[in-house]
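Quick one, T. Sequence first:
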Amino acid sequence: PAIVETSRSPSAASVIYRGPDQLAADGCSTAAKEWYLNGARIGQGDTVTLRLFNPLLEQGRVALEVVSEFGFEPLLDLQNMSIGPRSWEDVSLSLLLGEREQIAVRVSVVEGVVIPSMHRVTENALAAGPGESPSARWEFPLAQVAGTDGTISVWNPGAEPAEVGLELVDRQGPIGRFDLNVAPGREETFNISSVTTREAGLVLTSNVAVVAAVRSDGPAGAAATVGAPRPADRWLVPAHGVVGGLDSFVFVLNSGDEPVEVSAGPAGGEAGAPVDVPPHSIARLDIGGRGADITASGPVSVAWVVTNEDDTGLGLGVPVAATAP
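Structure tokens:
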């Protein structure tokens, strides 16, 4: 784990994990008192690890609640965990649970600051996902990497049933809208690749706040990420193009009803020619240089993907809050 501190704003940080035959992408998180992580599965031979990072010089303490397709998992040792100053603890969910089709974790921070992440390692791939907070809306600029089996997992941690709408879109526009009902305390999945095998974005809306994550599994590896709870007019992708030997692309989702003009360029550099993104569609941006700064004429959401011949990494961009006049 790492701590990033900056002296000026706007600023952002993101991470690329790279190892033998493995690749993953992730972002940096700020502090919260409650975290939700979902979307992982434990297949035969998979390793799924929950990492709990304490970035401060004071003791941290958390309570964990783990849910699978069997419901609440009574793991008593996880109900009160301490994490020492400037250190971390790894919880092997695959060792504790064995094979599971669905895994969701609630991390309640009882003391200090603790930031969780979940990592899944398969025979030929690595996928990493951060924690998030429930929302009634999620936008995924790239919910499925082309040529992979894409899945969205929706967890309802609340007490009311969730009526979820899923709108799939691609570069040509809307693909279709699908409904998903999620009972309280349960997680449900939707197979994106049963509808399309192309690159696809997704907009989730719900009558109650839910947690959602997407996962792409295929011969070229695995990737996972969370969505954006709201669009923004400007986004940063710090890790775009910074590692040699990797292909890196930025995806923009326009979930609105009007076209949006998008300008993008390397961090601190000149933006390229504007790109028009039609309503309810995604666009792929090829940006030269290191880092990416994306501005739009209306609200959009942004994700980025890195690939090589062995694996794929997928992450969410960093939104830049509008400056008050």
